[in-house]
Design goal:
single chain, alpha+beta, Multidrug efflux transporter AcrB transmembrane fold, Alpha-Beta Plaits, 6-stranded antiparallel sheet, 4-stranded antiparallel sheet, elongated
Length: about 575
C-alpha cells in the first residue's frame, strides 16, 4: 500500500491573520514614534505654511575664471545655512539650483528684511589686531576680568604644511559652539627656502592671565566692549551685523563664542581674499594628526608678515590676532613671532570633520564669488492656508470619486479596497510626519499633488488583483482557490507597474531641484507603500474574507455574483457534476 503523500507546509499566505497583525503592529509602532517625537503633523513647505523664498545668482569676481563651480557653491551654501541658523530659523532650506543659483526658503515668522540682508551679502573674512578683551558674561553680572592670554581662542588660518615657525594658539570650529573652547592648537608659519627662521611659540594648555596692554584702547571703544552682549545667539547676531557693516579702516567690537571672550579690534590688516588656498590634511611630518593649512598670495603674504611682526612685540592681549568671519570672531590666537613666507598651518587634536569645517570656512573667506538677488517671493500664511485647503479638497474629491467607482462596480469588494486605502493613507501620513524632523522633508503643494496621483496608482493595484480573481471564478473555480491562483498573476503585474512608477519618480527626483523634487519624493514614497499595503494587507484580508459565506457563495452584493460575472449556470461550492453515462442499449 502506497504511503500517503505528505501535505504542504502551511505558507505565510495560509495564515493571513498573522500578516495582518504584523502590519497593524507596524502602524501602531510608527504612530507611537510620531507622538513620542512630538511631531504629529507633517512639516509644511513655504508655499503651504507661508514664508520667503530668495533666489541668489553667483558671479565671479573680475579676473577670476571658473570660480562658479560645485565646490565653491557648496561652501557658499554652508555659510548661508550658518547665517540663516543664526536667525533662529530651524526649518529653512538652502540648496543649489543648476550651476550658479542658490535657493533659500525661510518659513514664516522670520523678518523678511533681516533674512534678505543675511543671505544676500557676500561673506567677509578678515584679520584684525586685538586691542582689548573681556570674558563673555550675562548682562547685569559682575564686572568681567581682563582678556585671555595667548592660547585661548580659536583656530582659523590655514596654509601649506612645510617647516614650522611662529605659533599663536587657535581653536578650530567653523560653527561656533557655545561654551566650547579648543585650546592647545597652534598657528605656525611655514618657512620658505631662503627665509630667516622666526621666533616660535608653543601653545599652552590653559589660558593665563594677560599682561597689561602696551597701549590702552580708545576709551569709547572700551565702553562699547563692556556694553557688548554676546550671551545669546540673538545678541551675537546683532553684534556681528554691526561689525560686518563697519568699514575696514574702522575699529569694531566682536564676539568670540568659542573662547567665551569678546574683543575690541583694530582696522583690517589682511583681507580674507588674500588667502589663495586652504585645506584639511594629515600631518605626515610632525605626526600631529589632522591639520589645516593655508597659503597667502603675494600681497597677503607681505601684509601678514608685517602685522604679525608688529603685534608679536606687544603684551597680551594686544599680541593677539583676530580672524573675523561675517562680523564674528572665529579665532583670536596670540603671535609670539613674525609669520613670513606666505604659508601657515594650524594643528592640535583636530578631528577630520573639525579640520574640514575650518578649511571650508577659510576657503569661503577667499572665494572669488559675489551673489546677486534674482528674485524674492513672499507667501503669506493666509495664501499658504488657501493653497493647502485647495489641495486637500482636490484630494478629497479624487478619493471620493475612486470610492464611488469601487462601491458601484465591486460592491462588497470595495470594503477591501477602502480599508487598504485607509491603511495606505495612515502609513503615508505618519511617515511624512516622521521624515520632517528626520531628514527635513517639507510637504509642499507639488508633494500634495504627488499624494493625490498616488491614490489612482494604489486603486489600480486593487483593481488588477480583483479582476484576476474574478477571471479565475469565470473559469469555474470557487472563491478560495481563485484568490490563491489569481494572486501570482496579479502580483507580477502590480510589481511591474509600481516599478515603472517608482523609476519615473526616482529619475524625476535626481534630475530636478526645488519643489518638483517634493512631487517626485512623495510619488516614490507612496508607490513603495502601495506594494507594502497590497502584499501585507489587501491580499491577506481578501484571503480571510474568501472563507466567509457571504463572499464564497457569491452574494449579489459580494462583488462575486455569478450573474454579474457572466457565469451560466452559477458555479456552486460543491463538487462539479460528472459527465453523463452512456445508455448501454444506445451503444
Amino acid at each position: 500500500m502506497a504511503a500517503p503523500k505528505k501535505g504542504r507546509k502551511p505558507s505565510a499566505q495560509g495564515k493571513p491573520g498573522r500578516t495582518l497583525v504584523l502590519i497593524l503592529i507596524a502602524i501602531v509602532a510608527l504612530t507611537g514614534g510620531m507622538f513620542l517625537s512630538g511631531h504629529t503633523t507633517p512639516r509644511l513647505g513655504i508655499d503651504l505654511a507661508g514664508g520667503t523664498s530668495i533666489t541668489l545668482k553667483a558671479k565671479s569676481e573680475p579676473g577670476q575664471k571658473n570660480a562658479v563651480n560645485k565646490t565653491n557653491m557648496e561652501t557658499a551654501v554652508g555659510i548661508i545655512e550658518r547665517r540663516v541658523n543664526g536667525l533662529g530659523v530651524s526649518e529653512a532650506e538652502v540648496q543649489t539650483q543648476g550651476n550658479d543659483n542658490i535657493i533659500v526658503n525661510i518659513p514664516r515668522g522670520t523678518n523678511e528684511k533681516t533674512a534678505r540682508e543675511q543671505v544676500g551679502t557676500t561673506a567677509k573674512l578678515s584679520f584684525r589686531p586685538v586691542l582689548n578683551g573681556l570674558p563673555i558674561t550675562d548682562p547685569g553680572s559682575a564686572s568681567p576680568s581682563p582678556s585671555p592670554s595667548a592660547s585661548s581662542g580659536k583656530d582659523e588660518k590655514d596654509g601649506k604644511d612645510d617647516d614650522k615657525s611662529a605659533a599663536p594658539t587657535a581653536s578650530s570650529s567653523a560653527e561656533p559652539s557655545d561654551g566650547a573652547t579648543n585650546q592647545g592648537r597652534a598657528l605656525t608659519g611655514a618657512l620658505a627656502a631662503d627665509a630667516t627662521p622666526s621666533a616660535s611659540a608653543s601653545p599652552s594648555a590653559e589660558p593665563s592671565a594677560p599682561a597689561t596692554p602696551a597701549a590702552p584702547a580708545p576709551t569709547g571703544l572700551d565702553k562699547q566692549l563692556e556694553a557688548l552682549d554676546c550671551s545669546t545667539r540673538e545678541a551675537r547676531l546683532a553684534a556681528s551685523d554691526k561689525a560686518r557693516a563697519a568699514k575696514p579702516e574702522d575699529p569694531v567690537v566682536a564676539c568670540d563664542p568659542d573662547s567665551q571672550f569678546k574683543y575690541s579690534l583694530g582696522p583690517v590688516a589682511v583681507e580674507g581674499k588674500q588667502i589663495s588656498d586652504a585645506e584639511a590634511t594629515i600631518d605626515t611630518q610632525g605626526a600631529s594628526g589632522w591639520i589645516v593649512t593655508m597659503d597667502f598670495d603675494k600681497k597677503g603674504s607681505d601684509q601678514f608678515g608685517t602685522i604679525t611682526s608688529e603685534i608679536s612685540k606687544k603684551a597680551a592681549p594686544q599680541n593677539q590676532f583676530a580672524i573675523v568671519l561675517d562680523g564674528e570672531i572665529a579665532s583670536a590666537p596670540s603671535v609670539n613671532g613674525p609669520i613670513t613666507g606666505g604659508n601657515a598651518q594650524i594643528s592640535g587634536s583636530f578631528t577630520q570633520e573639525e579640520a574640514t569645517n575650518l578649511a571650508n570656512m577659510l576657503s569661503y573667506g577667499a572665494l572669488p564669488l559675489t551673489f546677486e538677488e534674482q528674485s524674492v517671493t513672499t507667501v503669506t500664511a493666509a495664501l499658504g492656508g488657501e493653497q493647502l485647503e485647495a489641495g486637500l479638497i482636490a484630494g478629497a474629491i479624487g478619493l471620493a470619486l475612486v470610492v464611488i467607482y469601487l462601491v458601484v462596480y465591486y460592491r462588497g469588494l470595495s470594503l477591501v479596497a477602502i480599508a487598504s486605502l485607509l491603511v495606505s493613507a495612515a502609513l503615508t501620513y505618519v511617515i511624512m510626519a516622521l521624515l520632517g524632523p528626520a531628514i527635513g522633508f517639507a510637504l509642499n503643494l507639488p508633494a500634495v499633488c504627488g499624494a493625490i496621483v498616488a491614490i489612482g496608482i494604489t486603486a489600480d493595484s486593487f483593481i488588477v488583483f480583483f479582476e484576476r480573481v474574478r477571471d479565475e471564478i469565470r473559469e469555474g473555480r470557487s472563491l478560495r482557490p481563485a484568490v490563491e491562483r489569481g494572486w501570482p498573476r496579479a502580483r507580477r503585474t502590480i510589481l511591474v507597474s509600481d516599478f515603472v512608477s517608482f523609476l519615473a519618480a526616482a529619475v524625476l527626483f535626481v534630475v530636478t531641484v526645488g519643489k518638483v523634487q517634493g512631487f517626485a519624493f512623495t510619488l516614490g514614497l507612496t508607490t513603495l507603500l502601495d506594494v507594502v499595503v497590497v502584499f501585507f494587507f489587501t491580499k491577506p484580508l481578501l484571503t480571510l474574507l474568501a472563507r466567509t459565506k457571504f463572499f464564497a457563495d457569491g452574494h449579489p452584493w459580494s462583488g462575486f455574483d455569478p450573474k454579474r460575472l457572466g457565469i451560466t449556470p452559477p458555479i456552486r461550492r460543491g463538487r462539479r457534476p460528472s459527465a453523463p453515462l452512456t445508455d448501454p442499449k444506445e451503444a
